[in-house]
Write a structure and sequence with these properties.
single chain; mainly alpha; about 0% strand; transmembrane helix; membrane
Amino acid sequence: MPGPVVDTPSAQEFVREISEKMPTAELGTIAADVERKSRLLRDLLAEPRALDRDGLRLVLRNVFATRRRADRILDEVSADRLAAAIDDLLYAKGGLVQRFDRFDTVLADFADPGFDLPGELLHFAFPDRYWLWTRWIWDPRVETGALRLVVTDDVDLAAGTSRGETYLSVGEAMAFVDETGKAAGFTAAGPGLFGTDVFLAAVYGIYLYTVLRMRMTQEFNRVVPSLPDLVRRLLGVYRLEV
């Protein structure tokens, strides 16, 4: 990506707004929860083909986008097919783009949860190798998301002709945000990319609050979760199932 990638002034303004709604120490607590989720999923996904329905359900229940649809996904996709697809995504030889796109075909009938699931599986199974990609991080269908809010306008997050190729573009931008954030202090809540995960979830929470204030009544605003709870929900650690 030529030229500046991270819009540092915008990122720092989000840091200021986040600090007004939650203590800085809370970000570190959430990052520790995210790391705990990763340890759980690393254990579960060490041998995906060995997982039975209950094991696969536990995986799906710890992903925000699939939490409430876990049983339906397992009923319609089948446990055996989903286990094989996860094994292929995580461990098959060949390019990441092809593995990502093959996984998409298995979840084709579940557009929304299927959008988030491969990025969650890759990132939390191999946090040092892969990055998180969810709709709230970047949704090319509506061109919104936390990542779009902290990178410069000329960064093309939708590069590529398939979701697998776009995953690589998102990863490149995420690496810049992580590196810049570690230097500036706004992604330092947790080790590796976990601090960046938490920062971007908080950025999206601030964005969501802004949109709701413009579109909803005060009564509706009262039922929106607090920022720490919202961040935990987005990252799938609000009620981590073990």
